[in-house]
Amino acid sequence: MSSAEQRATAIAEALLANGFCLVTGAMPPGEIEAIDRDLAPSFENTPFCAGHFYGNRTRRFGRLLLRSEHAEAFVRHEAILQAAEQVLAPACDTVQLNLTQGIAIHPGEVAQMPHRDQDMWRLGPGAAECLVNVIWPFTPFTRQNGATRIWPRSHGLAAREDPPDGEGLPIEMEPGDALVFLGSALHGAGANTSSDVRRGMIAGYCLGWLKPYENQWLAYPPAIARRFSPELAALVGYRQHRPNLGNHEGLCPSVLLGKGPSRNCGASDALLPAQAAAVAEHAACQRRGG
User: If DSSP states are collapsed to H, E and C, what string results for 103-159?
Assistant: First the structure.
């Protein structure tokens, strides 16, 4: 097992045990500085959000893979992505990118209402783990400037219980660190009582058969996704989820990214092995006369 695989397994085990994991030194300073520089105009020009959940003193914007070429390194961080795949694998064939979002919490912002992100899908608490989120700080996250609060062990079946008391555990961290947490874990941004802006990004991964928070095909239409690596294009949705979900004309949507024609092609099965075997046996039985 490689060092990345070992680290991924350790992250996944911590997620399932506690609902979150702080990964220190996950990204070198140069990468943080580069993406923060690329996103500076968006942080400057994006209006404050409207609504108490998003935050009236908070700026948010998506499509980070389009705004910075450095975003791919965060989205495809080897150990963290592998950990997300390990956690979500019991309920899906492949994972997909749920969102990328730049977030800047300005002085005067109040604490966000504690919530569980995967409640957006209404699957029922404790049904399955559907989502793994990663917060990457571009500036130090402190208790004073609104560090994300986590309620440890509030995930999974614990989500069926009454919300835990207290204000949660503020996760203080430095640029280059990563806070990884489950979509079923209770959490919320803290209040920014400082004079500094708390700035960073979030990337999330969800089950490949769910509708993602950010509409990836509008964020990255084929003309944009053709510039992506095959692995990144697959992560944003240009692949099928077996059996046959997310197809284009009965084919994997990756056909839209190639140079050849994508029309007038016959549909092709995309089945799980057990399904393919059962269908093949049924077809063979029919050919033998039942």
Answer: EEECCCCCCCCCECHHHHHCCCCCCCCCEEEEEEECCCECCCECCCEECCCCCHHHH
Q: 109 CB contacts (<8 Å, ≥6 apart)?
A: 55, 56, 57, 58, 146, 189, 191, 192
Distance separating alpha carbons of residues 68 and 52, to the nearest angstrom: 28
Tokens 């093949």, located at residue: 280
Q: How far apart, in whole angstroms, are the C-alpha atoms of residue 227 and residue 220?
A: 10
Q: Which two tokens stand for residue 49?
A: 């959000």
How far apart are alpha carbons 163 and 154 in whole angstroms?
A: 8
> Angle at Cα 157 formed by Cα 150 and Cα 7, nearest 5°?
60
Q: Tell me: pLDDT of 104 over 80.
A: yes
Task: Supply 121's token pair.
Answer: 């899908």
Predicted confidence (pLDDT) per residue in 166-201, tens digit: 889 999 999 999 999 999 999 999 999 999 999 999
Query: Beta partners for 192?
Result: 145
Q: Are 67 and 39 in contact (CB under 8 A)?
A: yes
Alpha-carbon distances of 21 from 7, 58, 179, 181, 184, rounded to whole Å: 12, 25, 6, 6, 14
pLDDT digits (tens, 9 = 90+) for 212-265: 999 999 999 999 999 999 999 999 999 999 998 999 889 999 999 986 555 567
